[in-house]
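note to self: dont lose this again. the chain is below, predicted strucutre after it. 251 aa total, dont forget to put it in the shared folder this time
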Amino acid sequence: MTTARPPRILTIAGSDSGGGAGIQADIRTITHLGGHAMTAVTAVTAQNSMGVTAVEVMPPDMVLAQISAVSDDIGIDAIKIGMLGGADIISAVSASLKDLTPLPVVLDPVMVATSGASLADDKTIEAFSEIIPHVSLVTPNRHEMDRLGGEQVIVNFDVPFLVKGGHDDGDLLADRLIDRNGLIASWEGARIDTRHDHGTGCTLSAAIATFLGHGQPMEEAISLSRDHVRNSLQCAPGYGAGHGPMGMPER
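---
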């Protein structure tokens, strides 16, 4: 780690009442990896390991007020963006990024919960093209990449995409870092056989943002974050009857 004080990491995401994903997973990850976690809640969800039963989206002005409150006083070293809740919030957050000092921003384009519940409608998905130019990295899984228009859309942006392979078939999975010029790097790993995988995407993107906040270069931040997620899967406590939360590995 390269900073004397904990890097200030802002997560802009939804709340998960079950604690496995969203803001709760982000705070846990950022804190565990030596960062100072700050939040801008975009939505409140009622969910557990079995699924999402209710969603209440925040007004865009309230999301912006949270961002301004921490940036004006505490400052921000890196940002993780998760569930945004709607096209209006995407537009508002996108505009706010223009006003912040250039810093690492990791966008996890959350569209569907691990349980299968939809967390983004078609209008929201279309709006992602508005915010992508203002981030440093996009981390879609295969299904999210398809909803964004497929890997061919990457050429439209001057931003790298980490296309995650966790939803692919087979026992050997690959995450690929791609930009408009093609493949930059890839990481392979054996599939970890567990149903306690709730919050993998949130945890990965929050970890990447934290390592970037510590001053790590992009590829190293991704590598360290993948190791953290894999270790977290292997030490899951086994809570819940469905897709339960991951654990927190020893440092």
